């Protein structure tokens, strides 16, 4: 079986083209979306990701504001930068790039963001809105995955979905999204405490790997023709490696690779959250 590629790069380009038109319309009405980022330290992956976000802003006509703090920045320094953006008229939405250096509380940082400017959808208030089914910014990577599935007409109604990983940025909010009435999937959220993980992945119609362990998902862990989405990233001198082993991707019917699958869509969803908030 040869898997059909879920091409996040191509779909993201289409979404960005649409967003460019929406931004032009907003500008004509006197509304100017502005995205800001706060990056602490010089992690190569985070630097690359943040740079990509600002390049995306340029592509669609969104003003971008970049705040880079040194690795030894204190929690107080980060909170001060957040306060500035909360009060900035030019910034309509912003993110703090995660993970943060040791010694800085992620909880304190996320709670300090103005929920109305939370472009990542990770403020506790916005996550609570997601739980309740209310409108609000949706975490970017889960939203990217759902839009990929929808675009490629992969049915989720009644589908069995196994998510590997329970992190706040992917696993937990993704489970909430896929169990909405619109998607109507049955989701099993697996983690380090899960007994017989393979039992869950082998019975799933859709498997989403998001743990950051290179080549973790093997062919024998999935059923023939399953839809497989690779979200995890491991960095080696030779380059980036996803969570899905090539043997598993070859056994799937649809496959979202890493890179080129969910990553470009995550960045597109960040822009979409900013434009949606202004609209």
UniProtKB/TrEMBL annotation:
GO terms for biological process: tetrahydrofolate interconversion. Pathway: One-carbon metabolism; tetrahydrofolate interconversion. One of its GO terms (molecular function) is methylenetetrahydrofolate dehydrogenase (NADP+) activity. Residues 6-120 form the Tetrahydrofolate dehydrogenase/cyclohydrolase catalytic domain. GO terms for cellular component: cytosol. Homodimer. This is Unannotated protein. It comes from freshwater metagenome.
């Amino acid at each position: 079986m040869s898997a059909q590629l879920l091409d996040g790069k191509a779909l993201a380009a289409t979404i960005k083209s649409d967003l460019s038109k929406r931004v032009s319309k907003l500008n004509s009405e006197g509304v100017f979306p502005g995205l800001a980022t706060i990056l602490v330290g010089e992690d190569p992956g985070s630097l690359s990701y943040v740079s990509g976000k600002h390049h995306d802003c340029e592509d669609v006509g969104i003003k971008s504001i970049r705040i880079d703090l040194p690795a030894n920045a204190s929690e107080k320094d980060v909170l001060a930068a957040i306060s500035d953006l909360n009060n900035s008229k030019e910034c309509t939405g912003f993110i703090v790039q995660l993970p943060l250096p040791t010694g800085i509380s992620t909880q304190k940082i996320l709670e300090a963001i103005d929920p109305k400017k939370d472009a990542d959808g990770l403020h506790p208030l916005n996550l609570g809105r997601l739980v309740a089914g209310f409108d609000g910014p949706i975490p970017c990577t889960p939203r990217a995955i759902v839009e990929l599935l929808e675009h490629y007409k992969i049915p989720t109604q009644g589908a069995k979905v196994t998510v590997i990983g329970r992190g706040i940025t992917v696993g937990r909010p993704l489970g909430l999204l896929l169990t909405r009435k619109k998607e109507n999937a049955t989701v099993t959220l697996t983690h380090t405490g899960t007994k017989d993980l393979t039992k869950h992945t082998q019975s799933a119609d859709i498997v989403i790997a998001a743990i950051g362990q290179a080549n973790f998902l093997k062919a024998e862990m999935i059923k023939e023709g399953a839809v497989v989405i690779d979200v995890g990233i491991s960095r080696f001198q030779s380059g980036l490696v996803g969570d899905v082993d090539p043997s598993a991707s070859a056994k799937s019917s649809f496959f979202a690779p890493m890179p080129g699958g969910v990553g470009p869509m995550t960045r597109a969803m960040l822009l979409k959250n900013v434009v949606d908030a202004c609209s």
